[in-house]
Specification:
It contains 18 helices and 13 strands. It has 421 residues and is α/β, with parallel strands linked by helices. It has two domains: 131 residues, 3-Layer(aba) Sandwich (Rossmann fold), CATH 3.40.50; 205 residues, NAD(P)-binding Rossmann-like Domain (Rossmann fold, 3-Layer(aba) Sandwich). The strands form four sheets. A six-stranded parallel sheet has the order 10-9-8-11-12-13. It has a three-stranded parallel sheet with strand order 3-4-5, sandwiched between helices. Helix 5 links the parallel strand 4 and strand 5.
Length: 421
């Protein structure tokens, strides 16, 4: 927002995170973000506080960007942080203002929050709410913010729409499509998009199982399907499945909310989507065990990747770490390497061993698992890695390594749903 020319005040109640942000450092890895933070903290255009009173006095336009994790007691979303932030800010709103929700919430949340804001704000109904979901991809967050592929505005008044159009004027002038709609549709736009992407991933992983049984190749099959413009090639990459802080919890919360609305039968397929995703992880553990002659005990296993996707240090619901943990529970000695996520992985799986490089992790390994598709792993020399391991056996859980090159260097390489070599 500062890069787009606005004066920005960020509210962060965590002291350590606020200190890092005020020093121009993001508390997580996102390519390009540290440079923008350092630039605009330095210019004074961007600063941070823990005071909602200061925020209320500062801003005419507020963005709500707090997390909505899965509830600890069910599949639904935990809205505690959202409600707390809205109530804390609303009490400070003494002049007409617009609060714009960007958090992923169950449909119906915005309408309730709008009523609560009007109750608590000293300015009353002049404190308005809009819902403007974010569609950022981790690892591409800066690019997706500066150049969004669409803008969805859930508004209840013409004034709210005009304020948002003014804020997004440059993007709109650049041709970014705009969808103006109601609260409920805007809320559903994000969760429906994530549900569709998750379904597409689980679909190709289910097809990969058929390919393995039939001796077919899922990559060639996905290429053939992807040439159909109605389908497209994106998200048709078979592998260990999806993870992270969005897709898994969003489809569960969507299914939960559908049940509350009495239409759970219509969304019951999402349970299968989730089940297929979880089964893919278990099947990879089974394949790894087979490649180790059916016995994990005492075997040394190298895992390349800990983050749920490249370009991020996010290990929330990471397939790579779940698989690594299961192999360790089975008796294997597991060594993990990730270019960015070692520090976050240690917090979740402190009993795993972590290496400082891909070669160090591979040293003496009986099996290597490639589970996060960092470019670094694609560029490795198969012969150099081969000189470090005990056995040249590799399981490519992302189907992106150059299989012919690895096999030419004497490796046994298995993929997901790939034609046998």
């Amino acid at each position: 927002m500062a890069e787009l020319g606005h004066e920005v005040l960020g509210v962060e109640i965590d002291d350590a995170k606020r200190a890092a942000l005020s020093a121009g450092r993001a508390p997580f890895h996102e390519p390009g973000l540290d440079a923008l933070l350092a630039t605009h903290v330095g210019t004074g255009r961007l600063r941070f506080t823990d005071s909602f009173a200061e925020a209320g006095d500062f801003g005419d336009l507020h963005f709500l960007c707090v997390g909505t994790p899965q509830s600890a007691v069910g599949l639904g979303a935990d809205l505690t942080a959202v409600v707390d932030a809205v109530e804390s800010l609303a009490a400070q709103l003494t002049r007409p203002t617009l609060l714009v929700g960007k958090s992923t919430v169950p449909v119906g949340t915005a309408a309730r929050l709008a009523e609560r804001m009007a109750e608590l704000a000293p300015v009353g109904a002049a404190a308005e709410l809009a819902w403007n979901p974010e569609f950022l991809r981790e690892g591409f967050g800066v690019e997706d913010t500066l150049h969004p592929d669409r803008i969805v505005m859930g508004v209840a008044s013409e004034r709210s729409e005009q304020v948002l159009r003014t804020f997004y004027a440059d993007a709109i002038a650049g041709g970014t499509p705009v969808v103006v709609t109601d609260f409920a549709t805007a809320e559903l736009a994000k969760v429906a998009a994530n549900a569709f992407l998750a379904t597409k991933i689980s679909f190709i992983n289910a097809i990969a199982e058929v390919c393995e049984a039939a001796g077919a190749d899922v990559v060639d099959l996905a290429d053939a399907m992807g040439h159909d413009r109605r389908i497209g090639r994106a998200f048709l990459n078979a592998g260990v499945g999806f993870g992270g802080g969005c897709l898994p919890k969003d489809i569960r919360a969507f299914l939960h909310r559908a049940g509350e609305l009495g239409v759970d039968d219509a969304m019951s397929f999402l349970k299968q989507v989730d089940d297929i995703n979880q089964r893919r992880r278990a099947q990879l553990v089974q394949t790894a065990t087979e490649l180790l002659d059916g016995n994990l005990v005492g075997k040394r296993v190298c895992v390349w990747g800990a983050a749920f996707k490249p370009g991020s240090d996010d290990v929330r619901d990471s397939p790579a770490l779940w698989i690594a943990g299961q192999l360790q529970l089975g008796g294997a000695k597991v060594i993990v390497y990730d270019p960015q996520a070692a520090h976050t992985a240690r917090q979740v799986y402190p009993t795993l061993e972590y290496a400082g490089s891909s070669i160090e992790a591979a040293r003496g390994a009986d099996l290597i698992l490639h589970l996060t598709e960092w470019q670094e792993f694609r560029e490795l020399d198969p012969a150099e890695v081969g000189a470090a391991v005990a056995r040249r056996v590799l399981l490519d859980g992302r189907n992106v390594l150059d299989a012919p090159a690895w096999r030419a260097a004497g490796w046994t390489l298995r993929g997901i749903g790939r034609r046998p070599a």
